[in-house]
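Appendix B, record 7
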Amino acid sequence: MTRGPVWIDLGNSPHVLFFKPVIDELHRRGVQTAVTARDFAQTPQLCERFGIAAEVIGRHGGASVGGKARELKQRVRGLRAFAHRTRPCVAVSHNAYSQTVAARSLGVPVMTAMDYEYQPANHLAFRCADLVAVPDVFPLDRLKAQGARPGKTWRYPGLKEHIALAGFRADPGYLERAGINTSRPVIVVRPPADMALYHRFGNPLFPLLLGRLAKEEVTSVLLPRTEPQAADLEAAGFGGLLWLGEPLDGRQLVAGADAVVSAGGSMNREAAVLGTPAYSVFAGKLAAVDRTLVAEGSLRLLQSADDLARLPLQEKAVAAPPQIGDALLMQFVERLLDVARR
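Structure tokens (predicted):
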């Protein structure tokens, strides 16, 4: 039994899905949790949607490095106060570096996970952590350069989505109940993470993609990351593609869709794991996990206007989504509790 709660920090919307099965497994074992969330990209709303009681601390610092630094300082202060009050036995996140800094400054053991080797903040999070969890394809030279020594690194088999989707069962009626028109092919679209520290470039293909989707006989579900991004897409003439309803269960959405086209990473990887055709329009350096999926044929790259023109917009072949076991989830929880016991 741990001597205090496991402190989980959710800095972005994909983290909610990643940690939901972790939280459930901890509770099944009788381990208490204390959860914080950043007010960004519908993270608090998704916590509510999935029944995760989270205290909202801090927000996104904007696109500028200076804004990020100011918000980091303020959020670290708020997280330190939370930790003083809850006295956690361990802090864990998916590279929420404000939590790692706060926990480290208080002597709380830290576990952090990450699957993108070109995130500049890895240098901070990896050095603060007692254990760094990454997929086994994460390049060793990047780990070393970013401060993750072999002795404090766990390179796990598979993807983080194998944890997020542990035990997942697809609901064939979910899309219709959510109000999504399924009489035409359903195409889920995720815009670039244009406020992220690792996203310092333009993406000229993305508006071309939206322009094609706007002309096709498909149901496009465009999921903006933030309200300002939604406003920009509306102003650019793509308001008709935007999803304006309640936050969706991304797992069920991806499982039921006919294709996923993303300028990010997590949603494409979920699609690849669940057998939904996945296409990447990411304009940055491709992660090792994505290069692996491309080599396996479960992720396709769209790198030119010709690629966009050839993008198939049709119903996918009928097949039962694969059943994701809980082996990796159990390993993650065991590693986490090992850190807590130190």
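Remarks on this record: The chain has a mean pLDDT of 92. Residues 174-309 form a domain with the Rossmann fold fold (CATH 3.40.50.2000).
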